[in-house]
Amino acid sequence: MATEFDPFESDEAAALEESRRVGDKQPYMQWFAASELIKHKDYFLKNLLHGMAICAGSRIIAPSWLAEPFSASFQAAMDEPAKSWDHVFGTPVPKGRHRATFHRVETQRLTVMARVEGSVFGTPPGSKFLPIDKGYWECIAAGSGVGATRAEELYREAVRDGADSIEEMRKRHLEGLAVASETTFFEKAAGVLKES
User: Fold this and answer.
1) 19: which of 28, 57, 95, 131 fits an S-S bond (Cβ 3.0–4.6 Å)?
2) Domain ranges in the chain?
3) Environment class of residue 121 by beta-carbon count within 10 Å: exposed (0-12), middle (13-18) or buried (19+)?
4) How far apart are CA 190 and CA 187, in angstroms?
5) pTM for the full predicted model
């Protein structure tokens, strides 16, 4: 009897193998979403709704460390109404930031990261990667709504916040552990932001 794939208990190689076995990128994307939830657990514990949205969007069962506080917060709000849903689930926009500005910047950052991923994982086997220079950032910025300098800044912010660097992505690509995908985690996350 085959065991069921668990994105929270699997490693990248197992997720890739499962994607190959079923002929679908979904297991890999679920593993990636689960690994992002784990990597940024402290953030998601303060922003329960965002964590649950990633689980729902990735079609994964929320881990108990996320589902239990979410359920408890929801039940507490039902038992005794809270001032606002932000008090229950955390604020979707950091204090002092304007919602539209925050949304625009996050969407730009996710777009830039999706384009960086595409430049790495779209490189055919045996080909050289593009040099990381001004021309590279101009290429990444094209069509993303920002200039080359801002694209590089957004990339560096994402890496500081825990996203993989270009070097880490290239290493994974060369190891053959990347799944060619039309929709990356970052593009899915951008879709979640658009819906909020």
Assistant:
1) 28
2) 1-92, 93-196
3) middle
4) 5
5) 0.55
